[in-house]
Amino acid sequence: MTTPERFPRRRLLVRLGLLFNSFLALLLAIPFVRYLSSPALRARKDTGWVSLGSLERFPTGQTRLATFRNPVVGPSDGPTARLACWVRHIEADRFQVFAINCMHLGCPVRWFPQSSLFLCPCHGGAYYADGSRASGPPERGLFEYRYRITGAELEIEVGALPTPGLASARRGASSCA
Amino acid sequence: MRLSGRIGRWLEARLGLAAAVRESLEHPVPRSSASWAYVLGSGALTIFAFQLVTGVLLALLYVPSAAEAWNGLQEMNRQIAAGWYIRALHGWGSNFMVAVVLLHMVQVFLFGAYKFPRELTWILGVLLLLLTLGMAFTGQVLRFDQDAYWGIGIGASITSRVPVLGSTLLQLLLGGPIIGGATLSRFFALHVFVVPGILIGCVTLHVLLVLKLGVNEWPMPGRIVRRSTYLQDYHRLTETDGVPFAPYAIWKDIAFSGVMVLAIIVCAAVFGPFGPTGPPDPTIIQTTPHPDFFFLWIYALLSYLPPAAETPVLLVAPVVVLAVLLLLPFIAGEGEKSWRRRPVAVLSVVLVAVTLGALTHLGLHTPWSPEMDAWSSEPIPDSALAGRTALQRWGAVVFQAKQCRNCHALGGRGGHRGPALDDVAVTLTYDQLVRQVIQGGGNMPAYGKNLSPAETTALVAFLETLHPPGQARARDLSLPAVAGSER
Predict the structure, then answer these.
(1) What is the pLDDT of residues A17-55, one digit of tens each?
(2) What is the mean pLDDT of residues A118-136?
(3) Phi and psi dihedrals of B481, rounded to 5?
(4) Which domain holds residue A30?
């Protein structure tokens, strides 16, 4: 049985070999990390304007459900690319377009015209007709999409999933501006 | 010599494993440990192997695509021979695995088995519990139905609340800006490759440690664990009063494993597979998302936390709980093992069990959610209408039409979000009722904008009739003195 100390050259070769493999591992880490973080980097650009259809579909004074397809659709998205929002036509050119996601934990809120409330089935969050928080666990009102009217169509700007984090980030950004 | 014997001998000449296996099987365990209380760990191991087999069977047909997964599961339930049953076995296996792992942890805790020198075994066990829960959650997502979709949405909402890194973490979790195809692929990779891979590694180490350090002896009150003497004491115990693990203890493990597998087989056959519920189409909003059984307590907890406390609790509490579990063997690594001398340990287990049980019970009944259709489906009790004036009856119509019933029960029917109103007139005066309706408060929305003055008057006139016979209405006694009116 020989001890490594008796072979300093072999020991050096082992170390060189390990060093070489570590270098390769570092080199490979670049594409690995880029690959893993690609969705996060790409998503920043993933906003776009989509049409909710003709203005006539949204009578004045009413709140209606509208559906649209996510502008950035992958081949395997299937039904998840279909999204929905609540459109409140206040008067003439004034609208409010709310995300259906409750600002508590993202469950889909339902509009009840009889009591003029949005109610969440998960934990009972409630919002007034203008999207502001009425009661329950949500900390803030419903997320509002930016909208514009192009010709006779209502368009909204959609991007990331409307979450409480996104809502507070946007509020922070607009208060800075 | 028979052929099987010859093949065995041929293999052994090359592998040389027989001695090691025999040594493991016959390693001495304290006689007191060959007990029915010690079968939970091997039970969990058996169910894990069961899950691997049924999981591979499911993976043969599962399509990890958001466009196809739901249809694929429907086909598996209906078209593939025994497809529904394999799904049921895997689903029920998952429930049994979580349950047995939890019970195993409680038993280890109460028997003081986490103390010196088995700290690392406990830490690996804590990781195994987390990994098991991770498998349960990712598996629920692979069902890719409405519950799965909104379940990811809940995870996304929580993730987005992480300060600074929230949006980046969210994108990494979802694999894109919204829940979609990439999200399902991610959860598929986690459920099928990443988590099981780590699980197999941790289980192997966990079992190796059990073999190396020996099975925990039955805790006796007064037999104190000391780092300086424990190893000699344990060695002496196994020498003087030890029995070989096989067959003295192992037959009980085998029997319990059989009972677990039988229970899964029977549950799967009787109750069938879990879901899938409706398709994962977020434009279908007529849905009430629910997590699986073992996550119901979190669902209930999220309803009862005050809004301002929610984000800190969601982000800090898991870290604290994990730290306590991981540090436990270092904080209490010596001392009494017997639960008879560890009242704090016993009370902790009882407290946690009662808390989780109560929250799970609430999660099953969701008293905090409005009954979305109570206003149109529940009749007003006759007793609340008989002998009432036209104004009061109009108030009853307003009560139904404005959906007060969705949150407030009458005659035991309706929502439980707000208090039942059968005797509301006993506790609130006319002025207080008007104020509550118009301004809301105490977790009730304000209805001022949504009710005409006439509707409010009628509604409150109706509410004022709601008091048990023989019990007077609440009155503001200062009013006659101040205004001279009799209201």
Answers:
(1) 999 999 999 999 999 998 888 876 665 566 789 999 999
(2) 91
(3) -65, -40
(4) 7-45
Copy the structure tokens of residue B208.
Answer: 């190796």
Flag whether A176 is in a domain.
no
Closest residue in B to A139 (Cα–Cα):
B307
> Do A94 and A21 fall within a single domain?
no
Does the structure show a pLDDT above 80 at B238?
Answer: yes
Q: For chain B, what is the mean pLDDT?
A: 92
Minimal Cβ distance to A80: which of B66, B166, B447: B66
Domain assignment present for residue A177? The answer is no
Residues of A in contact with B417 (CB under 8 A): 124
Q: Is A124 in the same domain as A135?
A: yes
Q: Provide the pairing of β-strand A63-69 with A48-54.
A: unpaired
Q: Output the six-digit token pair for B49.
A: 């192997």
Cβ contacts of B302-307, under 8 Å, gap ≥ 24: B302/A104, B302/A105, B302/A123, B302/A137, B303/A123, B303/A124, B303/A137, B303/B362, B303/B366, B303/B368, B304/B362, B304/B368, B305/A137, B307/A137, B307/A138, B307/A139
Q: What is the pTM of this model?
A: 0.90
Number of domains in chain A: 2
Q: Which residues of B touch A135 (CB under 8 A)?
A: 440, 443-445
Q: Which of B362, B143, B289, B359 is nearest to A104 (CA)?
A: B289
Same domain, A115 and A151: yes
Specify if A1 maps to a domain. no
- Residues A47-76: what's their mean pLDDT? 90
Distance CA B164, CA B287 (A): 32
Q: Specify whether A87 is located in the same domain as A133.
A: yes
Give yes or no: residues A98 and A157 share one domain.
yes
CATH number, residue A105: 2.102.10.10
DSSP codes, B441-475: -SS----GGGS-HHHHHHHHHHHTT-S-TT-PPP-
Contact B406, B374 (CB under 8 A): yes
Q: Are residues A163 and A89 in the same domain?
A: yes
At B24-71, the pLDDT tens digits run 999 999 998 999 999 999 999 999 999 999 999 999 999 999 999 999
**Pair B400, B375: CB distance under 8 Å:** yes
Specify if A175 maps to a domain.
Answer: no
Q: How many CB atoms lie within 10 A of CB B336?
A: 19
How many pairs of residues across A and B have Cβ atoms under 8 Å apart? 207
Neighbours of A147 (CB within 10 A): 18
Segment holding A155, helix H or strand E? strand A153-158
| Cα–Cα distance, B144 to B67 (Å, whole number) | 10
The verdict on A158 and A82 lying in the same domain is yes
Regarding whether A103 and A141 lie in a shared domain, the answer is: yes
CA distances in angstroms from B214 to B30, B79, B238, listed in the order given = 9, 49, 9
Contacts of A166 in chain B (CB under 8 A): 160, 167
